[in-house]
Amino acid sequence: MINYKQLHHFWNVARAGGIARASERSGLAPQTLSGQIAALEASMGATLFRREGRRLALTETGHTVLAYAEEIFRVGAELEEAVANRASSRTIPFRVGVADVVPKSIAWQLLAPSMQLGERVRIHCREDKLERLLGDLAIHKLDLVLADSPMPTHMDVRGQSQKLVESRISLFAAERLAQTLGDDFPACLDRVPLLLPGADATIRQPLLHWFERNRVTPSIVGEFDDSALMKSFGQAGIGIFPAPELIADQVCRQYEVSRIGKPLDLLESFYAITVSRRNTHPATLAICAPQQRDREA
C-alpha cells in the first residue's frame, strides 16, 4: 500500500523543483526528504527522479506518479473543505459541466432543485464538449455533467447516467418566415431553410430521418454546436430550427418566433451523469431525486 506521507514529500519536491527548495519551504532537512523519496521509490520499484546537472528532473514514471499525486491531494483538500463547510454551514461548492448541445433554459430547469436546498450552495457551471466534461468528471473536477445522452460506452469512465427529463421536439420560425409556409404540415417544410444542431447533438440524426420519413427535403443553411446561437439565427429569419417542446413557450417569447405545425414524434432526453462516489453531494441528490424525474413534455 502507498505510504501517503512519502507521496506527499515527493509531491512537494516535484512542485518545488528540487530537494533544497522543498526543504526551505517545508522546514524539513534535505536528508529527510531524500530518505522519504528513496523509500517511496523502493516501495514502488521505480525511479521517480533523475539527475540533470545540478537539478532533479522527473522520469516518465515520475510524471505519472505526480499526476496521480496532484489529484489525490486536490481531492483530499476538497474533502477537508466539504467537511469544514458542513460543520460551519458555509457555502457548499457544486461544480457542474453542461454539454454545449443542452439548451440553457433546460439546464436551468434541471439545476434549479440544487438552488432550493436548506444548505447554501454555490454553483460553478462550465459549458464544453461532452467528452472533455466527462474527462474532468472522471478526475473529480466536476460533481455532475448534464448531457443529451447517457455516458458513452467507449469511454473508460466508471459512472452512472440518470435520465432526468424527456421532451418531444417542435420546429420554430421567425414570423416573416412562418407566414411563407403553407398549412400542409409537414409537406410545407420542403425546400425551407433549416438550421440544424451540430454533429454532437443526439437529436440531429433522428431529426434528419424524420424529414426523410415524411418525404420533405429542407435546405440546410447552418449547423450549430451552441443551441442558443442557433435560435438567434432563427430569430433573424435565417431558417426554421428545432427545440424541445418542454421549453416551447419560453423559446417563442425570448426569440419572438412561432411554433410550426404540431410537435414531432421525436423524443429528446436529458441526463445527469455522475461518478459513483460523488453521489452523496446534496445538490446532486436534489437534482436526481425521483420526484424531479417525473417531468415530460
Question: In CATH's first tier, which class of the largest domain applies?
Answer: Alpha Beta
Span between N and C termini? 52 Å
Percent of residues in helical segments?
40-55%
Which spans have pLDDT < 50 for at least 5 consecutive residues?
Answer: 291-297
**Number of structural units classed as domains:** 3
Radius of gyration: 26 Å
- By DSSP (H or I, 4+ residues per run), the number of helices equals 12
Do you know the CATH topology of the largest domain?
D-Maltodextrin-Binding Protein, domain 2
**Topology pattern, helix = H, strand = E:** HHHEEHEHEHEEHEHEHEHEEHH
The share of residues in extended strands comes to 15-25%
The CATH architecture of the largest domain can be given as 3-Layer(aba) Sandwich
**Strands, total number:** 11
Structural class: alpha/beta
Mean pLDDT: 87
- Can you tell me the overall shape? elongated
Q: What is the CATH superfamily classification of the largest domain?
A: Periplasmic binding protein-like II
**Largest sheet, strands/sense/barrel:** 7 strands, mixed
GO molecular function: DNA binding; DNA-binding transcription factor activity
Pfam families: HTH_1 (PF00126), LysR_substrate (PF03466)
InterPro entries: LysR_HTH_N, LysR_subst-bd, WH-like_DNA-bd_sf, WH_DNA-bd_sf
Family: Belongs to the LysR transcriptional regulatory family.
